[in-house]
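Page 42, continued from yesterday. The earlier attempt failed because a stray header line got pasted into the input along with the sequence. Redoing it now with the clean sequence only.
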Amino acid sequence: GGAILMSKKSKKSKKAVHSISTSESGKYTIPPMKSINGKWVRKLDPKIEYTRNYGQFRFLNQNRVTTKKHIYDLAVSMRNEGQDEAIVVNEDMFVINGQHRLKAAMAMRMPIGWSKATGTDIKSVQIMNTVSKNWDFNDYLHRFTEKEYDGSIHWNHSQYDIVADFIKTYKLSNKVVLYLLSQTNTPDRGYIAFKKGSFKIKDLSAAEAIARNLAKLRNVAAVAKGLYFSMAFIKVSKVKDFSFDVCYRQIKNYPRKLDEDGKGQNEEEWIESIVKCYNYRNKKNRIEFNKKIK
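This time it went through. Structure tokens are written below.
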């Protein structure tokens, strides 16, 4: 999206090719940039500036981490077709939208087109990035654990600090971690609250105990790392007379009983498989799952 930044149109093709004076900076009047949420057009200056003075721009710590591949892809595109959208900075010259474009221009020593939007912050970054390329789990985790440029930090950062430590400690997938920590049975399993910054940990000690057991099971059965297996295991572990030691021994001795056809399973199927493996050739410590268990 956005208008093509150029000094003149190409006669050979309808697709404008980037051309710009070799001076350090210059101003060119272009049509207003496309509105994102109804407010951006009014905030943006009608003139776009070009510059190679990259040092004037600053990066927000809370913005998502840039990736080399994205920078490379943009560099190739900008080299061949020009910059099709200006980067946006706030009044303090922090990049609100376009940090990958800026780094691509820096890599090629190419003038970068930029515009200023006042009164914008990290929330504005999320709005603009959601339109262009959705934030992923790690982007949100980074956003809510990093300080802003004024030294402030998100009110709920302590919960996200725990999430980050939990992932590093137990090496579980992001979805499993959110489920263990939130213990929510909603379809999103805590991810909606996680994206909003309002994620809450229900019972850290209980989550750690389950995570330790899942880590042990993962050593004898690779399927134990999956989300649906984890959800099923939590429910089965609530069964009367359940013993993790027995469960571990059974899965270690009879791993094929867990997933006999080698295909993935949903939560209910995993419950059935775990119970089946638990009871296999086990006459003394058999368990029976009650569907009322949540």
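Notes: Residues 27 and 49 are 5 Å apart (CA to CA).
Reminder to self: strip header lines before submitting.
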